[in-house]
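Hey all, sorry for the wall of text incoming. These are the two entities for the joint prediction.
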Amino acid sequence: DSGVTQTPKHLITATGQRVTLRCSPRSGDLSVYWYQQSLDQGLQFLIQYYNGEERAKGNILERFSAQQFPDLHSELNLSSLELGDSALYFCASSVDAGTSPSPLHFGNGTRLTVT
Amino acid sequence: AQTVTQSQPEMSVQEAETVTLSCTYDTSESNYYLFWYKQPPSRQMILVIRQEAYKQQNATENRFSVNFQKAAKSFSLKISDSQLGDTAMYFCAFMISNTGKLIFGQGTTLQVKP
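and here's what came out:
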C-alpha cells in the first residue's frame, strides 16, 4: 500500500459529461502529481501541485483542470469528455518538489471509460 | 526536451534466469535522477530502484541492479533470479532535479515463464 488514495476506482460516463477524480496524498507529502496512462500515449504527466500551488504543467488539455486544497488532497476535473479521454488516471505524491530523489508514490489509479 | 526510450516492447525470461531491460534517455541537464517502476497486472505503480546521476556507483536493491552509463545516457535494469512475481510492465523514468516531474518511457512488458 503506497498510502496514496484515489477515488473512485472506476468511472463510466458519456461523452460531453464532466467528472471529478479525487486524490489523497501520503501523509506528510506536499507534492501531488496527476498522470494519464493510455494505450497510445503511455504515461503522460498532466500537472503538479506543491503545498497548494501549481508547480508544473505538462500535456494537460484546457478541458482539464486541477487543484490542491489546504488539507493537501487534490482533485482533477475533466469536462466535455471525449472518447479519447478514456484512460487510467494516476495520482502520485512525494515529500518535496524534486529537491531530492524522493520517489513518487502512486495511487492505484482511476479507470475512466467514456462511452 | 527530455525523452526516455525503451526499445524492447516485450521480453520473456525463464524463472531463475537473469534478464536485462534497456533504457536510454536524452537530456542536456546535468542534475537528474533515474528510476525504474514496475506495473503488475494489478496496475499499481511500484518503485523498483532509483539512481542519482551524480553517483557513479550503480544502485542495487536485492535482485535488482542497474547499469548506469552517464556518458552514453543509458540506464538498464538487471533482474537476477527472476521470479514469477516479476511479471509486469517495467517503466524507465527520468526526473530533472528540483522539478519533481517524472518523464516515462513507453514501457517493457516482461513475462517470467515457469
